[in-house]
């Protein structure tokens, strides 16, 4: 069991994690979700004793990590698969971790087999692909056969077969009664892997509940209703009956109706009462990804803007001017207003360039509007408007822990443990970001030329 109480971490003026309290229970896979920069890695580092909390505490099995007896046998972690001495073979890397932790050497070959690297165990890890590196990091986490496992983005770089393998591994570890805490950005993957979710935004807890409950509370369910094709009067009768009963209807692209505000049995009764035959009446629910986007869109720190290519293209007949909505070069992307939640909208489709219709013929060497550009991302949506609050799925008198992240009193003058004079990470048993069974030495960068086949 991992337990955090009022966990807060400040780096100078930056509050990375604020007043976070949660439990990660054994026997389940707990997904740890949050937008980029929301504090997931910082939280994991504090759990592993690699960063000291500014206030609050976090324990593993009731102990601070550093006070755990024989920590590497109790906690395994994958934080950064790249933090491996590339000159060492996979086997030697694991062997050195095993020796430091009093783990028998034969265990190294076992875990190499578990992660499917047995045939490349003698190869230097610097030649490994991203996916192979992830597998090596997972092997290191499994080395001490620990009861508590932390994985930061374990499926990064894995192919579909590898992703499936990680999913099954996580589920098996949990079914053996272990505590499995895993961060990921792949919502579809989390939906299939995790039992429980902890969601943070700007370092603060936004939700802590089973996956299914999270989806139900943060998404709007709807019914799809279809009347017989070619009988528009049936459809019109049904729409009137549903609307009179307080339902909302929207046409779907395929001619069906999307109905919200009425439960399925009521829709069925209303159709029956209006003498309308139905070809389809089915319940629908948003995906975890949609639910997640609704909950976290107000706490996204990094939003892309449309690339207006100022100075590169001019609307025909218009003077050269900065595009009205483009941020000047170097200016930060739009930020959500701290303490204000965003309007409950899913991000709209990517916006085209508003000047596109006026543009001159393509110029050689000049990027064309609308064409996908490397490095540009779809516009995620309007900046949050002050005074709007998230509606969908908001619990009415429920127990959902859903909070619009507040800017904590930052205490700009709070001491920074990493400020000058404290360049070295806290002396701990495990290297910062090391993919190691806790207690590993993966920060070693010393040359070790004599190794490897
Ligand atoms: N050593 C540090 N010094 C200063 N700021 C830091 C440090 N480590 C993290 N931060 C800041 O703290 C915030 C949280 O970072 P963190 O890496 O924990 O987020 P994350 O949720 O893991 O992000 P991602 O999903 O992108 O990996 C970020 O704004 C980051 O810039």
UniProtKB/TrEMBL annotation:
Biased composition regions of type Pro residues, renumbered to the chain: 326-336, 364-393
Segments of this protein annotated with the region Disordered: 320-453
Superkingdom as given in the UniProt entry: Bacteria
Alphabetized UniProt keyword annotations: ATP-binding, Nucleotide-binding, Transport
Pfam family, one: ABC_tran
Name of the protein in its database record: ABC transporter ATP-binding protein
Entry GO MF terms: ATP binding
Coiled coil: none
């Amino acid at each position: 069991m991992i337990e955090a109480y009022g966990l807060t971490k400040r780096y100078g003026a930056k509050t990375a994690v604020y007043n976070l309290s949660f439990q990660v229970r054994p026997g389940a896979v707990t997904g740890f979700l949050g937008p980029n920069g929301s504090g997931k890695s910082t939280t994991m580092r504090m759990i592993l004793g690699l960063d000291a909390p500014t206030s609050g505490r976090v324990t593993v099995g009731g102990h601070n990590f550093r006070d755990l007896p024989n920590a590497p046998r109790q906690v395994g972690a994958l934080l950064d698969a790249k933090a491996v001495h590339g000159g060492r073979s996979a086997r030697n890397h694991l062997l050195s971790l095993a020796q430091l932790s009093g783990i028998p050497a034969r265990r190294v070959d076992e875990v190499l087999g578990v992660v499917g690297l047995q045939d490349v165990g003698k190869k230097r890890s610097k030649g490994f692909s991203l996916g192979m590196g992830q597998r090596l990091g997972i092997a290191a986490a499994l080395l001490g056969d620990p009861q508590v496992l932390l994985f930061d983005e374990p499926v990064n770089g894995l192919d579909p077969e590898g992703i499936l393998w990680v999913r099954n591994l996580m589920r098996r570890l949990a079914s053996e009664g272990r505590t499995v805490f895993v961060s990921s950005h792949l919502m579809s993957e989390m939906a299939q892997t995790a039992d429980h979710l902890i969601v943070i935004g700007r370092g603060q807890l936004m939700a802590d509940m089973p996956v299914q409950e999270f989806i139900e509370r943060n998404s709007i369910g709807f019914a799809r209703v279809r009347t017989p094709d070619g009988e528009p009067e049936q459809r019109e009768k049904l729409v009137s009956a549903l609307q009179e009963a307080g339902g909302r209807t929207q046409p779907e692209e395929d001619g069906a109706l999307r109905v919200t505000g009425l439960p399925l049995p009521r829709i069925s009764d209303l159709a029956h009462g209006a003498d309308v035959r139905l070809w389809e009446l089915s319940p629908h629910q948003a995906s975890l990804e949609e639910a997640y986007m609704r909950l976290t869109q107000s706490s996204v720190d990094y939003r892309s803007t449309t690339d207006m290519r100022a100075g590169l293209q001019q609307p025909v007949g218009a003077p050269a001017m900065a595009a009205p909505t483009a941020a000047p070069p170097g200016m930060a992307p739009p930020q959500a207003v701290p303490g204000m939640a965003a309007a409950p909208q899913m991000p709209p489709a990517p916006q085209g360039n508003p000047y596109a219709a006026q543009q001159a013929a393509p110029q050689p060497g000049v990027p064309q509007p609308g064409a996908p550009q490397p490095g540009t991302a779809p516009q995620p949506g309007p900046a949050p408007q002050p005074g709007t609050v998230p509606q969908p799925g908001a619990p009415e008198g429920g127990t959902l822990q859903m909070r619009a992240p507040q800017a904590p009193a930052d205490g700009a003058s709070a001491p920074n443990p990493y400020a000058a004079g404290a360049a070295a990470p806290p002396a701990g048993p495990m290297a910062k970001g090391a993919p190691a069974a806790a207690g590993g030495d993966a920060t070693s960068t010393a040359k070790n030329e004599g190794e490897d086949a």
